[in-house]
Amino acid sequence: MSGGATPALLDVLCPMHLSISPSGHITHAGPTIQKLRPDRVMRGERFLELFAVKRPRGIGCMADLRRACDLKLHLQLRDAPRTELKGVLVPLGAEGEPGAMIVNLSFGISILEGVRDYALTNADFAPTDLAIEMLYLVEAKSAAMEASRRLNQRLQGAKIAAEEQAFTDTLTGLKNRRAMNHVLGRLVTGNLPFAVMQIDLDYFKAVNDTYGHGAGDHVLQQVARIMVEETRESDTVARVGGDEFVVILPDVRSDAILRSVGQRIIVRLEEPIAYNAAICRISASIGTVRIKEQQRRSAEQLLSDVDVALYASKHAGRARQTFYHPGLRAGETCRDTGPGRTP
Predict the structure, then answer these.
(1) Which terminus of the chain, N or C, has less C-beta within 10 A?
(2) CATH class of the domain defined by 177-330
């Protein structure tokens, strides 16, 4: 080469160039194009054995390639990864060996894939190459997208936390009335079997009056723990009032299961609860409604029925479970009750 067009100069101006001899051998490879095959020295290889010319079609020898000078070439590396490149051939003419050429290559619109696949940086391109501007834009976009992703994650986390707080009773960690209404509304429209227990603590007011609200809060927390332990993960346990609880049990298909759950809760809540030096004693009255498959009942009617069953348990002596039946509204004796306990 003459006129200052040395390989070192071309390496700076065109780091993806190749110098090709008249015989079609690569005599020099720019530093960036060599990075595409770091384990294979390109110098000395035949250009057409390393690259396939996809367009223009019909190029099979160096004579064909020389006729494609000044045309845009679409090339592909023959071995994996079969990266596609764009290129333009320029004959050296009088300034170099007759028949020698330089081909300047680029990734074209595949620049992002090329940078990713070969771990290239802005140092691998000429300072005036538009690829540098694109890389800066991509980097800025990636940084903005990452910042946006992190912000969205924080916002989503805050939203989930706020929703969870809105559906949680702060004292016991159970669901609250809003959560109960949400779950109940979904079940009553689903035409699937489920059951609802309304549980009211007996003698809880005496605990508050005798030992103070600190003792009352402690008792409520222990009650919440027991109810969670005696129900399934799929069940919803909610505190809906001071000492009022609701348990929603999806996919329950027999009264026997409900009797067993209710009895376990009653028995465990009759166990003394220690608070400092005091011993707190409570019990539980339960009203239960079971909804069979395809049985229609509104949430309002369901809550009314379970409330009637609860007060039937209260009036029958407390510490027992009553299943709702229409006769309860007419004052009939409650059925399916357990033994009570007097204060």
Answers:
(1) C
(2) alpha beta
Does 7-128 match 177-330 in CATH topology? no
pTM above the 0.85 mark?
no
For residue 75, the cross-strand partners are 53, 85
Distance CA 331, CA 326 (A): 9
Confidence of residue 342 (pLDDT cuts 50, 70, 90): very low
Query: What residue segments make up the domains of the chain, in order of their start?
Result: 7-128, 139-166, 177-330
Print the SS3 string covering 272-332. CEEECCEEECCEEEEEEEEECCCCCCCHHHHHHHHHHHHHHHHHCCCCCEEECCHHHHHCC
CA angle 1, 13, 62 (to 5 degrees): 50
Residue (of 288, 264, 282, 290) closest to 318 by Cα position = 282
Bridge partners for 205 per DSSP: none
pLDDT value at residue 99: 78
Superfamily of domain 7-128: Haem NO binding associated domain (3.30.450.260)
Cβ burial of 145 (10 Å; 0-12, 13-18, 19+) is exposed
Buried b (16+ CB within 10 A) or exposed e, 262-297: beebbebbeeebebeeeebbbbbbbbbbbbeeeeee
Q: Is the pLDDT of residue 8 over 90?
A: no
Ranked by mean pLDDT, the top range of 57-71, 111-125, 168-182 is 168-182
